[in-house]
Amino acid sequence: MEPTSERIDWRYSDDGAELVPWADAVARLAAAGLAWVVTVRPDGRPHATPMVPVVHDDKVYFHTGSTEVKYANIQANPRVLVLAGDTEWERGLDVSVEGTAAPVTDDALLRRIAELYSGCWDGRWQLDVHDGVVFSKSAGGEVAVFEVTPRKAFGHTKGDPFSQTNYRL
Predict the structure, then answer these.
(1) Can you name the CATH fold of 5-168?
(2) What letter would DSSP give residue 23?
(3) pLDDT exceeding 70 applies to what percent of the chain?
(4) What is the residue-wise DSSP string for 87-137?
């Protein structure tokens, strides 16, 4: 997936800043040991929670149990924000992705996502896939896998120079 638009937002960028290519933003998401997913509660309040992301074909995937708040929020409103970055001020790249979370049921894709999860952290994220249903050993039961297709994203470089790259997808 290539952005239809990639540009520096000079309102939030220092002189000499350079555009962050979309491939670098995707790589940052893929390398994140932890990211945040922000959903919207039925009453309009935001809900943020950490999660372990995996990236495949420029899309972000995460899983959650059906009793979790983010699951219920996504059922009511699938719009989400995914954030990956760190708390360093003088270095690094933070990436935020706006998109829609859609449940994944394709067995082949679920197996690929499970394979990607097996390499996360210390290997504790083991998912078993059977006929479109995913089981998480660490969660102790069935989980839903969601795919976030980016629609709009931002890459924020920190340090000298600071910059903001805007992506339309």
Answers:
(1) Pnp Oxidase; Chain A (2.30.110)
(2) H
(3) 100
(4) S-SSS-EEEEEEEEEEE---HHHHHHHHHHHHTSTTS---EEEETTEEEET
